[in-house]
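User: Predict the structure for this protein chain, please.
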Amino acid sequence: MARIKYGECELCKRTLSLTFHHLIPKKMHRRTHFRKAYSKNELNAGVNVCRRCHSGLHKLYDEITLAKQFNTIDRMRADEAIQRHSAWVAKQKS
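Assistant: Here is the predicted structure, written as structure tokens:
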């Protein structure tokens, strides 16, 4: 997905400034498992999310968990903890 600076957050659906979240965190890119299992394009894939959702993802889960269990937007949206956080963020003022 292309990086955009302003638009709709893919998790909370608010329209505001966005950040780019790597689906496989950059910290994991140098590990052999990820270098062998994923192409460069897959490693650099990500989603545009607001700062609150982005910070929430990293507070809820460490990088290895994000990389292995939440490496697609559908997996993120299906997670109950992420859903609760996104629902809370959606109610906040921009």
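The chain has one domain: 6-83.
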